[in-house]
Write a structure and sequence with these properties.
The complex is a heterotrimer of chains A (94), B (117) and C (162). Chain A has three helices and no strands. The longest helix of chain A has 29 residues. The N and C termini of chain A lie far apart (61 Å). The chains are: A mainly alpha (94), B mainly alpha (117), C mainly alpha (162). At the B-C interface, helix 2, helix 4 and helix 5 of B face helix 1, helix 3, helix 4 and strand 2 of C.
């Protein structure tokens, strides 16, 4: 077993672990129980999706996935900030 | 599978270790999100995914692409900077929103206790 | 304008960001990056942000390394709690810490440090009393946590933002 095999196995393992992590976050999103738990789970999902994008990019050897990851990271921040504001005030734009 | 085969053995092993480490931290963080009992406890584990988990995956990506393209590929640092700047803001906002909602609940409905407040 | 140095720093950071994003040091990208950075900095200056002088940048560097070490350490600590601890032996809770730090930029930095360290999260800050409330996942020794925040972070932040 050479280093390349180790790396491709590691990529598969890490993608499986990230998929399992996303399932956990999704379960918390569905279970709740309260709105802030769901928003927290959604934020975690964003971060995990970004990590999945990065591992996809590494597997393909293509830097195009980087842009996707960057956009997910930025949009995730804006979405969570807006949702937190909504939870606090009941409106997004005052 | 093209990426894995063109890499020097040492770089491949380091990248593999960092990837598995980062993904494992993210998974433990998500398990914590699912397992812990109250909202304020659940805020803590996802931070693992956003700090050290993201950090090690980003470093792995930087090493891999630098070795593949034989030039320093550093633009992953940008994701790292954005994450370190934005994560505290979102988590602080969320905790404050949760505290606010718990206070409102206590005012409306005294018997229902907000967790640990 | 009291100090140009912070605006120059911002413009330089924007140029660096542009070049990193485009992954090049080509002259054409410099020509694009510099006007954009100057325009963005000018736009930012017109917002008239509160000016905060930063002293002793090396203290900030030492602080950054301390925080990096703490993030790694607390990652493992939280991982151990998530995997091994049963819910009944966990003692999570809120902790009040009196702070001497009043500078808003220093407080913002402290908030970033506290929140990005797993195991501690910023709950609220009472500006009139100067009392910070943290939520801590592993609240066994309260004095140790207060000591950590005050000596490790606040002392250095006070040196930077008097």
């Amino acid at each position: 077993m050479n280093a390349a095999d180790v790396l491709s196995a590691a990529m598969t393992i890490s993608q499986l672990m990230l998929a399992a992590a996303m399932m956990c976050a999704l379960l918390r999103l569905v279970l709740g129980p309260r709105a802030q738990d769901r928003v927290l789970a959604l934020d975690t999902l964003y971060v995990l999706a970004m990590l999945v994008m990065l591992t996809f990019g590494m597997r393909e050897g293509s830097t195009h996935y980087f842009e996707t990851a960057l956009v997910i990271a930025l949009l995730g921040f804006v979405a969570t900030a807006a949702l937190a504001k909504f939870l606090m005030r009941g409106t997004v734009i005052e | 599978m093209s990426a894995a085969e063109q890499l020097p053995a040492l770089a491949a092993l380091v990248v593999a270790a960092l990837l598995v480490f980062g993904a494992a931290l993210a998974l433990i963080g998500a398990i914590g999100l699912l397992r812990l009992k109250t909202f304020y406890e659940r805020v803590h584990p996802p931070t693992m995914a956003t700090t050290l988990g993201t950090g090690s995956v980003l470093i792995a990506s930087m090493i891999l692409f630098s070795a593949l393209e034989s030039r320093p590929v550093l633009h992953e640092i940008l994701i790292g900077i954005f994450m370190t700047l934005t994560t505290p803001v979102t988590f602080m906002l969320l905790v404050r929103a949760a505290l606010h909602r718990d206070r409102l609940d206590q005012a409306d409905d005294p018997p229902r206790e907000a967790p640990m407040l | 304008m009291k100090s140009w140095s912070s605006y120059v720093l911002l413009a330089l950071a924007l140029v660096a960001l542009w070049l990193t994003l485009n992954q090049t040091l080509a002259a054409a990208q410099w020509l694009l990056a510099i006007p954009i950075a100057i325009a963005a900095t000018w736009g930012y200056a017109s917002l008239r942000p509160a000016h905060t002088p930063v002293r002793r940048v090396w203290v900030g560097l030492a602080l950054a390394f301390a925080v990096l070490g703490d993030i790694v350490r607390s990652n493992f600590a939280v991982a151990r709690i998530v995997i091994f601890a049963r819910s009944r032996d966990r003692t999570a809770g809120f902790l009040d810490i009196p702070l001497e730090l009043r500078n808003s930029l220093g407080l913002a930095l402290l908030a970033c440090i506290v929140t990005s360290t797993p195991g501690t999260s910023w709950a609220r800050y009472d500006a009139t009393a100067g009392v910070l409330t943290l939520h801590i996942l592993d609240l066994i020794d309260e004095d140790a946590w207060i000591d950590l925040i005050k000596t490790r972070y606040e002392r250095r932040l006070l040196e930077m933002f008097p």
